Amino acid sequence: MTQSTEAQLAEQLERLTRRLDELETRLAFQDDTITTLSDQLAEQEMDIRKLWEAKQNMHKQLKEMAPSNLKAEHEETPPPHY
Q1: Mapping DSSP to helix (H, G, I), strand (E, B) and coil, where does residue 58 land?
Q2: What is the mean pLDDT of residues 64-71?
Q3: How far apart are alpha carbons 34 and 36 in whole angstroms?
């Protein structure tokens, strides 16, 4: 091998090494981002479940507190045009 060929191979190897380092760095950041997003998603899911349960409890309490002003269908008098 000539010196120029060896220099070209060394330069190409250096470029590939830098590229590989850059890809590994990007992968590490992506892994961290995915982990962070996954954790946030899990927290939001728990918050949504808590809010849904709170809404269900409020709905139940409202039903127990205020009786409906509407009569049952069989208790309603028919409208005058019948």
Answers
A1: helix
A2: 70
A3: 5
